[in-house]
Amino acid sequence: MISAKDFLKYLTAGTLFGFVLMKSEVVSWFRIQEMFRFDAFHMYGIIGVAILVGLISIQLIKRFNIKDMGGNDITINPKDSSQVTRYIVGGTMFGLGWALLGACPGPMFALLGSGITIIIVPILAALAGTYTYGALREKLPH
Amino acid sequence: MCNSSTQQTRFTSQQYISFMFEFLTQPWPWYVAGPVIGLTVPLLLIMGGKSFGISENLRHVCASCNVGNVSFFNYDWKKNGAWNLTFLLGVIVGGLLGGVLFANPEPIQLAESTVNDLRELGITDFSGFVPAEIFSWEVLGTGTGFVILVIGGFLVGFGARYAGGCTSGHAISGLSDLQLASLIAVIGFFIGGLLMTHFIYPLIL
Question: Where are the transmembrane segments (chain A) (predicted)?
Fold first, then answer.
């Protein structure tokens, strides 16, 4: 299923990511409330700098044709921008949920690790949402 | 004089450990956290050509127990999703480390206007990451608790898959790669978020 080496690699990367979600307080329901009220720069600073760092990294990978650890070429699958409906409607539904719950998928799992057990309910509800999308997919405009 | 200053700057291992502990319990400002989150994108690409996205895991879990044999979940989730589910396990471990072992004992320094706003909506507990008025098992049975925890979670899961990604997949990964689709999705995220925060939340709380 997954080699021990890969397991350790991705576990470490996930742990670092989960840790920074906690330390940066991105997991906080209050911080999300603050962000959508435009009352603080904190969340915008984090997202903005993260995108900038990601963008520079991807440009460097492309420019210098950097290979992954397995020696393979790194390719990023482009997203199909012709499906405008799904991005606007799906995105708006996600945004409604993000602000309502005050957490997006990453923070939900980090909060679970920090001992907030009630977050299991939104996680199960998110799984139900994902399943419902999968079942209704053919009937939805994309 | 010279001697005493050398002595002051030389740390014992115990002092070093307590300094590190102190550092790790502090909240990190945006200019420290932003780069670390952004570096997740090249880290996963270099580790094995993987594209960063958390919500994809929800699909992998659905695929692992595809009850109604839905075609959207008919794929080899072990082959495609094992790395991502491992990453997700790490996120839980990171939550434990950052939220329990190295927990910041101080309440979050929020903008005063947000605190005032939320007090007016009836939130009184500002001590943790989430308000106890909403995130508790007792509240789940109330209409407010059900709407926030269950409907909120459902919309996150449904919306993320409909839009083809969440905050990590679209806002961080997609915008980093200058994907127009991600820009449209992120605009959607904010349309929904602003509608909820300013027009719908006051009706719920």
Answer: 7-29, 41-61, 84-103, 109-136
- A3 — contact with chain B (CB < 8 Å)? no
Question: Complex ipTM above 0.95?
Answer: yes
How close B166 comes to chain A (CA, Å)?
7
- What is the distance between the alpha carbons of residues A26 and A43, in angstroms, rounded to a whole number? 7
What residue ranges do the domains of chain A occupy? 4-139
Place of tokens 């927990």: B103
Q: How many pairs of residues across A and B have Cβ atoms under 8 Å apart?
A: 525
Q: How far is CA B14 from CA A124, B7, B19, B97, B193, in A?
A: 44, 15, 9, 20, 46
Which residues on chain A are in Cβ contact (under 8 Å) with B198?
36-37
Query: Does the beta carbon of A118 lie under 8 angstroms from any beta carbon of chain B?
Result: yes
* Stretch (H or E) spanning A2: none
| Whole-prediction pTM | 0.94
pLDDT band, residue B8 (cuts 50/70/90): low
Bridge partners (DSSP) listed for residue A67: A73
